[in-house]
Every structure is written in C-alpha cells, then in structure tokens.
Amino acid sequence: MLTSFRKMHGLGNDFVIFDERANSLALTPVRIAALAHRRRGIGCDQLVTLSLTREADVLVRFFNPDGSEAGACGNASRCVASLLWHENGKRHSTLQTKAGLLSAYVGEYGEVTVDMGQPREQWQDVPLAAEHDTLHLPLPGDPAAVSMGNPHATFFVEDFSLLDQGHSLEHDPLFPERANIGFARMESRTKMRLKVHERGTGVTEACGSGACAAVVNAVRRGLAERTCQVELDGGVLRIEWGSNNHVLMTGPATVAFEGTVDLAAYPS
Ligand SMILES: N[C@@H](CCC[C@H](N)C(=O)O)C(=O)O
C-alpha cells in the first residue's frame, strides 16, 4: 500500500512530511533513518510527522536522518504553518512541538513568522554536562550556548574553516544530548552570515533554530541588535528577539513536490 508524503523546504533545509492525522504510520527510528537517507530513501534533512492534538491545530514531531528526535526545527515549523494555511485558509496557526506550543502567522506574500518561544540560557537547559557559563564555553574558539528547544552552540568566526569540525563538536562530551553547531560571521550589528552543522544531520543549507540561537548569542555577547538578518547558504531569515523574550523567525516555506512511498519496503 502506498502512503502519501509532501516534500517541502525552508531555504533548502528539506523535509519529508507524513500526515498521521487520519491514520498513524509505523515510523520507527530505523524506518525514519532509511526514508531520510539521500541515496537509499526519499532523502531529507528532517522527517516530520503531523498528528491530531487537543492542545493546538496540529502536533508536530521532527526526526533527524539518524533517527533521533529533535525538540525544535524552525524551518520545518514554517513549512507546517504554510501547509495548514493552504489547507484551511487561516493565516494564524498553533503547533504543538516536543519543546512547547508555537504560534505562527503567514504574511501577505506567503512568508511565515514563527514565534519560537523563549531561549533558555541556563547550562542545565542547553544542556551542558556540567556547570559552565553558557556565554563562554570551555572549548577552543570560545562558543556560546543556548537552547531554542534544542541545543545550540555558536562560534563567532572570521571565516568558516572550523566547519569541518562540526561533527566532533556535536559529539563533544560537554553536550550530553549532542548539539547543533553554528559558525557566525558578523557583517554588521544587524547582519550575520551563518553556517550550521546540524545534530544528527550534518551541514545543511539553513537551520532556523540555529539562526535564532546565533542571534540570541550575538545579542548576549553585545555583537548584534535584537533584530538581525541572518544569511545562510540557502537564503535569508529575519530574526527578532522581542522585549517579551520571545524569538520571532520570518522566512519562506516552499512545497517541492508530493509523492507516495511503500513504507513496507523500508526496514522497521
Ligand atoms: N533544521 C532545523 C533543526 C533540526 C533539528 C536539529 N538537527 C536538532 O537535532 O536539534 C531548524 O531549521 O531549526
């Protein structure tokens, strides 16, 4: 039996989205990893599932290609909000995620703003393995850490030569749940160039939660204003860390194609 899915992306950060609102699908971590595989499966940066909930318009779960589940995914959250808008015509939506309830708004030109909630700056919340100042982690390169519902460390750099260390930094014992590793070059106080090695995925075209984390860390370091444009390989996000401590992320959401797959052909 064939199961439908949608392929969407936010700035090239791409997702396979399965709708489990009518029927639940047997998506085990092994099957998710097989489906997400670029050569042997459909291929994506994250596999996303939608389910029914009483708490919000939809319950959204995000899975990395290694089968691990993430608390947050900014670019996929914009895609899901855009998908709901196309379904029901409502520009406002609410998304229940592992990290919390998010609200989203689709603007005049189809661009999506997601309220990514409040950053968490305490070492236990990132989390780190032991008590440290999250503004200056004890690692070469002096990164800062924050949780946007998932763990992030941001290095402030002049060039991106450290990018190939992303995998070993992700697995550094300092991060008991591993971490997404961002490399930010400040172009001005309102403009940043960012590349991200994503936990469980690798280097992606864009990382929405990584952009939020990088701006929060840049503001905490005194390097940026609270509204900042973040240029990633796949395009630009606008990040605003509001006076209510919530981080708003605005950017595009694009449907690539709709397809079907025989789930039984993948290991469970
Ligand atoms: N693509 C993302 C983040 C996806 C999850 C991340 N790899 C993790 O494990 O935390 C985004 O746009 O935020």
From TrEMBL:
Q: Which residues make up the annotated site Could be important to modulate the pK values of the two catalytic cysteine residues?
A: H152, E198
Example of a GO MF term: diaminopimelate epimerase activity
Q: What is its EC number?
A: 5.1.1.7
Gene3D superfamilies (UniProt xref): Diaminopimelate Epimerase, Chain A, domain 1
Q: Where in the cell is it found?
A: Cytoplasm
- The highest taxon in the source lineage is Bacteria
Assembly state and interactors?
A: Homodimer.
Q: What is its main location?
A: cytoplasm
Keyword annotations of the record: Amino-acid biosynthesis, Cytoplasm, Isomerase, Lysine biosynthesis
Q: Which organism is it from?
A: Acetobacter thailandicus
The name of this protein is: Diaminopimelate epimerase
